[in-house]
């Protein structure tokens, strides 16, 4: 299973959207949505959450995001956040802890290879989820 995710925001905070592309055995599914007042990081996290939530059973997943915040957060930082009671290295509450908890709960159900791709660099699937995230914003009105 391959999952591509992206989040977008017009203003930060402002209206935002998220997009997901799921690919498996020649089949594809697109998902997207939006929120009227949010941040780009919340939309990046929401995209990953929605992508994993769409899976019906535990899976081997390659999840590709253009967000280092999401990739590093889930692969490097979250262990310390949990150990420290959701307090970050600056001794402040972890931003978006509600979404990090959701993502963590979903992620442990799967075997995930978290990958990063540079955004807006011509990666076809990343460009596609960027369009879906922007559609999520456009359809808010």
**Highest CATH level, the class:** Alpha Beta
First and last CA, distance = 33 Å
Mean pLDDT: 97
Backbone structural class: alpha/beta
User: How would you name the CATH homologous superfamily?
Assistant: Ribonuclease H-like superfamily/Ribonuclease H
Which value, in Å, is the CA radius of gyration? 15 Å
Q: Tell me how many strands there are.
A: 5
CATH hierarchy: architecture: 2-Layer Sandwich
Overall structural domain count? 1
Estimate the global geometry from the Cα principal axes: globular
What fraction strand? Answer: 25-35%
Compact summary:
40% of the residues lie in helices and 30% in strands. The protein contains 4 helices and 5 strands; from the N terminus they run βββαβααβα.
Sequence-ordered SSE layout with sheet pairings:
Elements: E1 2-9, E2 14-24, E3 27-38, H1 40-53, E4 60-65, H2 68-83, H3 97-107, E5 111-116, H4 124-138
Parallel strand pairs: 1-4, 4-5
Antiparallel strand pairs: 1-2, 2-3
